[in-house]
Amino acid sequence: MKAFSLESHAALVTGSSQGIGLAMGKALQEAGAKVVFHGLPDAVEGLTSYVKADLMETEGPQKLVEAAFALEPGLDTLICNAGSFFDLPLLEMTRERWDKTMQLNLTAAFFTAQAFAKRLVAEKRGGSIVLTSSTNGFQAEADSCAYDASKGALVMLTKSLAIALADHGIRVNGVAPGLIKTPLTSTLMESRDRSLLDHYEKKILLRRVGTPQDVAGATVFLCSPAASYITGEIIVIDGGLTTGQIGRL
Q1: Nearest to residue 221, comparing CAs of 33, 15, 17, 49?
Q2: Which of 70, 81, 170, 245 could form a disulfide with 165 if both were Cys (CB 3.0 to 4.6 A apart)?
Q3: Catalytic residue set
Q4: What does residue 236 show for φ and ψ, rounded to 5 degrees?
Q5: What is the value of pTM for the model shown?
Q6: DSSP code, position 245
Q7: pLDDT, tens digit, for every residue of 198-247?
Q8: Are strands 170-177 and 127-132 parallel, antiparallel or unpaired?
Q9: Could you state, in chain order, the average pLDDT of each consecutive group of 10 residues for the chain (249 residues)?
């Protein structure tokens, strides 16, 4: 057995037009899998197997899964990575932004996983699902009530799905990235002086902000035969950010 090989596997990665999702998809390809990428742009340069779909729409998850299976009928791997941040400070937060957060980060993940699992169960095939949560699913952050709640819910959803799908041979795990340099977080870090980045680099045990590739490696592992006896687990990928209470002074 090639423990870390994904040859003969096919994967759908949601939210993979950029950032962590794009790195995940490319890493799965490098491990031998066929990959269907997904995003909101009409097309992404260099990605030939790509589906445009809006997961905020009620039928978006079902349409995406159907389109992905049309491209790769042998799909057996799903990465529910699509998500974003829409919070305002607590006293300014709106119902619209709360609902938008839950719809994309949580509801879309559930119904994408459900549609994917239905297809595998109907075909009597096993598979693997990985959900992208966050260290915000374990530790709260200022002005992030909706985002924190959605990511915490994904932690428990990972476990619930693992229980529900175990008898069908479908493993469900999660990754919880810490501070990773992406288009979303770069805007935050670059909008202030160096002191914010210095603060994080002191707190992170490995002394650097993570990259999308740091998350991609753990995702490949969870989808591979090397993780065949792992389900219902969440791997925290944060360079040690959440290990200590205070960090370096």
Answers
A1: 33
A2: 170
A3: 147
A4: -85, 125
A5: 0.95
A6: S
A7: 888 889 999 999 999 999 999 999 999 999 999 999 999 999 999 988 87
A8: parallel
A9: 92 97 98 98 95 98 98 98 97 98 98 98 98 97 97 98 98 97 74 73 92 97 98 98 86
Distance CA 163, CA 157 (A): 10
Q: How many Å apart are CA 10 and CA 36, to the nearest integer?
A: 8
Strand partners of residue 130: 79, 173
Q: Which residues of 24-61 are buried (b: 16+ CB within 10 A; e: fewer)?
A: bbbbbbebebbbbbbbeeeebeebebbbebebeeeebb
Report the phi/psi class of residue 143: left, alpha or beta, with left for phi > 0 and alpha for psi in -120 to 50.
Answer: left
Identity of the residue numbered 223:
C
DSSP-H helix ranges across 43-171: 60-71, 95-102, 108-122, 145-165
Size of the chain in residues = 249
Neighbour count for residue 67 (Cβ, 10 Å): 16
Tokens of 102: 């839950």
